[in-house]
Amino acid sequence: MAEMERLSSKWTATAASIYIQSAAGSSYAFSIYSSALKSSQGYDQSTLDTVSVFKDIGANAGILSGILYSAVALNRRRIGGPWVVHAAGAIQCFLGYFFLWAAVTGLVERPPVAAVCLFMFLAAHAQTFYNTANVVTGVHNFSEYGGTIVGIMKGFLGLSSAMLVQVYDTFCKDKPSTFLLMLALLPTFVSILFMPLVRIYEAHRSDIDKKYLNAFSAFALLIAAYLMVIIILKNIFSFTSWASTATFIALLVVLIASPLGIATKAQKFESKRLPETLDPLLENPEPRLASSKFSASEEPVEHEHEMLVDHLEDMNLPRAMGSVDFWLLFIAMICGMGSGLATINNMSQIGQSLGYTTVEINSFVSLWSIWNFLGRFGAGYVSDYLLHTRGWARPLLMAVTLATMAAGHIVISSGFSGNLYVGSILVGICYGSQWSLMPTITSEIFGIRHMGTIFNTIAIASPIGSYIFSVRVIGYIYDKEASAEDSCNGTHCFMLSFLIMASVAFFGFLIALCLFFRTRTFYSLIVLKRLRHSPRQ
């Protein structure tokens, strides 16, 4: 125990969170085992889509994880910590996927659809517990670089699906039922192994924070580049079993060694300076927030006071939902996350209608996780840079990404040669950026204390938007175009749908722009306070 205390720091907490996030994105791997689930249970496509909807709801409705985190990790007289949230996620992950494995293999009698939907929900819902514990703890530990740490955590969650596909190709190729059992065991084991290290540490600003966060960022880019090359090569060439094993072992070695090495170097350098105090909430119950009070010299002028007063205190969920900013952010996320998720859900069908080959379609789907990662990571890093150096409010970058997403939808609707190459990159990067910007903006506008609950509530916008655009827009128009045939071929199949989603994304741009104008004074004052008064180690 003494040895663990000696090794514990915000850097080892970050490395541990990266390990957990790297195994936590199992909900993105649904396509690998969906056919086995469909055939073993005798489902039609409509029933399978219903199961998939419960997956999407479970993976995005993380309100309970936020409430639990606030209760066990931030309470002054708390018993527990972020590990409790990880444990709750591990239990759900194991129960959900183990039941699905038992159903697919026939270990249990064919269950009713409602039971499969419930356990699919539980399996996906575990992801929100892992994500909340890692993201919110990271923001507490590196509050000065919230965008960067959220980008790193969200980025590895986005990459995890590509990593799990590598696990499937290496150990479970053409055995989706075995893959389900692996999903029950691997994320559960990884989270239980590393969750004691994920803890909140005193958030003093250190000169080395940016340097070593940049090292974690460089490592993330290295992993993404490696996976992108492997995905492309595997879609072009046939890998033998030993080649797949070799590429996976190389990935595993780098993945295990690098975060631990970066954390060790940072901790050694930092130990020569002012030591950190573990769990400062016991001594200083109020975490230092990005929206903490201003000094007398920075008191806002009279006409600004009414706009800023709500932002100077942590808001709970009901109070946040009573603010205009909450609903502006929520609507913007319906437009961005909803249309982005609808795009990836229909990528295969779009490719088929436009005459792309199976290899090309598989490449689009596989590489989506890479573009998703680049958006999650890049938006966090760039928004931090612009905030610290130019004082630009993060909602401005959110508006830019929504405008770019609208352009991506227009590209896909156009049907020109190679349109999916360009369109999937634009939409994928912009979709990922929303998942990085939204939690960070939430922590800054509404405070860190209830950040987990609030950003997980806003995240419900993703499945809501996906249902609207996938079922009521894309599905309806596609079925109408294909009414005389079994399938639809040509640009007309999806042109109108994506023009509608382009209009919606542009509307989201206008909403994000409103949020920017409402909060730009608040953000500029935060930047001034950080530059002048942030404590250093």
> Which spans of ≥5 residues are poorly predicted at pLDDT below 50?
276-298, 301-305
The CA-CA distance between the termini, in Å, is 26 Å
Which outline best applies? globular
Order of helices and strands: HHHHHHHHHHHHHHHHHHHHH
| Number of helical stretches of at least 4 residues | 21
| Structural Rg | 23 Å
User: What is the number of beta strands?
Assistant: 0
Kindly report the average pLDDT value.
84
Helix content: over 70%
Structural class: mainly alpha
Q: Could you tell me the strand content as a percent range?
A: under 5%
**Biggest sheet architecture:** none
What distinguishing features does this structure have?
single chain; 537 residues; mainly alpha; 21 helices
Task: Furnish the topology, listing elements before pairings.
Elements: H1 2-7, H2 10-23, H3 30-41, H4 45-60, H5 63-73, H6 82-105, H7 113-141, H8 146-171, H9 176-194, H10 209-236, H11 241-271, H12 302-308, H13 317-321, H14 324-345, H15 347-353, H16 358-390, H17 394-414, H18 419-446, H19 451-458, H20 461-481, H21 495-533
Helix pairs in contact: 2-7, 2-8, 2-9, 2-11, 3-4, 3-6, 3-9, 4-7, 4-20, 5-7, 5-19, 6-7, 6-9, 7-8, 8-10, 8-11, 8-16, 8-18, 10-11, 10-16, 14-18, 14-20, 14-21, 15-16, 16-18, 17-18, 17-21, 18-19, 20-21
